[in-house]
Amino acid sequence: LEAAVLQRIPMEEFFSTPAAQYVLPILGEVPPGEPPDPKKCSPREYLEFYIFPVVLPGLAALLQKAEKEKCFEGKRTPFIPSDFLTEWLYNNNPKRKDESFTELFSIPFVKDWLKDHPRPPIPLSLLLSEEEASILIQSFWRGYRVRCDSEIQELRQWQKKLRDERHITEVVKRFWTKQEAKGKL
Questions:
Q1: Which of 120, 136, 130 is nearest to 80 (CA)?
Q2: How far is it, in rounded angstroms, from Cα 52 to Cα 56?
Q3: 20 to 30 A from 109, CA-CA: which of 11, 19, 76, 149?
Q4: Considering Cα of 27, then 2, then 84, then 43, what sign does the dihedral take?
Q5: pLDDT tens, position by position, 129-173
Q6: Mutual orientation of helices 168-184 and 150-166 as an angle, nearest 10°?
Q7: Hey, what's the signal peptide range on this chain (predicted)?
């Protein structure tokens, strides 16, 4: 993977003749010569001198991490590429050379964004391993099978009747009200 990413890609194979003059730079390589003024240079020069040397290594790291997380093997995965790339680019910013590593949710602009746009929780199906998921499914199934047993059904009906006759929920509420009143004195 690294060898393929680090090689120059001849664009003439993929595009018409005008686009064939462009060749992707090697990862992390800054073009030779003095960097142009970022406010006066052409878009191509800006990309070659200021964007590609930072973004391309980040994309290579993203691909390696995605491969390690087995993202290419299934349809669903808990790995979020945009989160990884945001964290990587923030921590590898040349302006932050001497600063320590910062986790994604500790990055200031990420904190601000998540205050206004909270993200939904990751589904449990993505967080559990296959073994953990199978244990949960098996325990649910065993519980269901036990609850279907006629003796268990009879016991549950008796408990329900007892709760209704003795007004257990009201008794519990009164008990906790008394306990709270004792705690306030």
A1: 120
A2: 5
A3: 76
A4: positive
A5: 889 999 999 999 999 999 999 999 999 999 888 888 888 888 889
A6: 60
A7: none
Q: Would you state the structure tokens that stand for residue 164, as one six-digit string?
A: 């209704």
Task: Extract the tokens encoding 89.
Answer: 């680019």
Tokens encoding 142 = 């065993």
**Which of 10-14, 66-70, 116-120, 169-173 comes out lowest in average pLDDT?**
10-14
60: tokens are: 């290579």
Backbone angles phi, psi at 149, to 5 degrees: -60, 140
What are the boundaries of each domain within the chain? Answer: 43-122, 130-183
- Tokens 């003024």 locate to 37
Torsion over CA: 126, 130, 131, 137 (sign)? positive
Angle between helices 81-91 and 52-68 (to 10 degrees): 130
Angle at 61 between CA 60 and CA 64, to 5 degrees: 90
Which pTM value belongs to this model?
Answer: 0.57
Residue 39 clears pLDDT 80, i.e. is over it = yes
